[in-house]
Amino acid sequence: MDDNLEKALERLKTDYIEGSGDKLDGIDAIIDRLYRGDGDRGADLVDMQREIHSLKGSAGTYGFSSVSLIAHRLEDYIEATNRLSNDQLRDVQTYIDEIRRIFQSGVNPTETEMDAILRALPSGTATLVSAQEVRHVIVLLVMPKGVQRRLVGGELASCGFELSFAESPLEAIGLALSLKPDIVVSSMEMEPLTGAELGRVLKTIEATSKVAFVLITSHEDDSGILKTLPEGAHVIHKGPKFSEQLSNCLIDIGVLGTLK
Fold it and tell me: If 0-12 CB within 10 Å is exposed, 13-18 middle and 19+ buried, where does residue 27 land?
């Protein structure tokens, strides 16, 4: 690489790290205000989530894919908890401190290091169920934001699973490769791929081929679409028996009844 170009890129990276440090300082200040109960809680929460989302979106461009993933997990944490008590604000601070540590090192962690970091980060599920009920099972829920995602996410969180969220099948594929979930639960009606198509894609990728796949749909079992699902996929139908079907599905997969 040309020396001038390499130096220019290095300057851009340095500027980005410094700018990100300012964002983290701003988030620290928001956490402090929220913890003390000062200021406008609603506005501060919006500002904090906006800054976290900004970090998630830009970090990969500068070689910090780990920061993007941690920021995504922090968004998952905030969504799973649905509120931020002082204990949960301390958990949020743990995420922010980890991101700051990575930026200060100037080096993206290795895959092995990243696995250890993710395992050590607080889980939003642990704030909803007792420690005895927490299952070390990662579930990736693929569904647009809205009432249905909150309801399904609540059902899964009540089982003690660690949740991550994706709004589209394309985002889900990338997250499945990074997070290595145990289960992917997807809505059928998605864009630009359907849930059934997502299941087939995950089955063809070696790294995700053994991940349990669950499709949530209103289609009947004899639907031509459902016949295209990969072997071993599970189907749950929307309706009054949804919770019962979900429980039976999770028992069939083998993640209920046994704590790891």
Answer: buried
